[in-house]
Design a protein that fits this description.
Blueprint lengths: L1 H15 L6 H12 L6 H11 L2 H5 L3 H4 L7 H20 L10 H11 L7 E7 L5 E9 L9 H8 L6 E7 L9 H15 L4 E9 L2 E4 L8
Parallel strand pairs: 3-4
Antiparallel strand pairs: 1-2, 1-3, 4-5
């Protein structure tokens, strides 16, 4: 009976996608391969009841997840790895040789960079004279509410490269797109430092809940 239920749920997902699935059904489906030969329906219900949403389940910690009956350490680790796998999948769409023709493309790319991240982090995207990405790296990672970056950290990343211009992007896990006063001041300091070595700061993009805002286009920091 259990195997038949699993086959029906998998068949439904393959044929129609997950749009009609409730969140506990999506979790139940995901748990099939992690917890074989066990009815994962009550476990999925318990996870949603405890954490409130699919998003919160996948962004919980191992210690939080193993408190749920039926979730062991290995299963918890696989659950929290899922957002990282999703992020890698989204980024791979762009291929290895990235080239951006306009800011909107960079903005959407930045959204993908922060899929599943629960702490604020600062990314630097270094572009050559033809707007091809020659480097993409995390400069710093902070807490869910802040990240601190010094201009020298940015300079270290562009030194000894063919960088012509830079795009900064960082996330606000709390959901607000507007830059904080610290965001504005940090951006201005970094711009001055880059100007001094002949590198242009094109934009500082802020990402929150799958959306982004260009602080340059919206005249928020430049």
């Amino acid at each position: 009976m259990l195997e038949g239920h699993r086959e029906r749920l998998i068949g439904k997902a393959l044929k129609h996608g997950l749009e009609s699935f409730r969140e506990h059904e999506i979790l139940e489906l995901y748990l099939f391969s992690l917890i074989p030969r066990v009815n994962t329906n009550p476990i999925a219900h318990a996870l949603i009841k405890q954490f409130g949403s699919l998003y919160n389940v996948f962004n919980a910690t191992v210690d939080e997840l193993i408190k749920i009956k039926g979730i062991g350490k290995r299963t918890a680790q696989q659950i929290i790895l899922f957002p990282h796998i999703a992020r890698a999948y989204q980024i791979s769409i762009y291929g290895e040789k990235l080239h951006f023709s306009d800011l909107s493309q960079i903005g959407q790319y930045c959204v993908e960079l922060f899929t599943g991240r629960v702490n604020e982090a600062m990314h630097i995207i270094c572009l050559d004279a033809k707007n091809r990405v020659i480097k993409n790296a995390i400069v710093a990672e902070g807490t869910p509410s802040e990240v601190y970056v010094e201009p020298r950290q940015i300079i270290e990343h562009v030194s000894h490269t063919a960088t012509s211009s830079v795009v900064l992007c960082h996330n606000h896990p709390g959901g607000t797109l507007m830059p904080s006063q610290n965001d504005i001041e940090t951006t201005q300091k970094i711009k001055i430092a880059l100007d001094a070595i002949g590198i242009k700061l094109i934009d500082h993009i802020i990402v929150a809940k799958g959306r982004y805002i260009s602080t340059n286009v919206n005249n928020l920091t430049f």
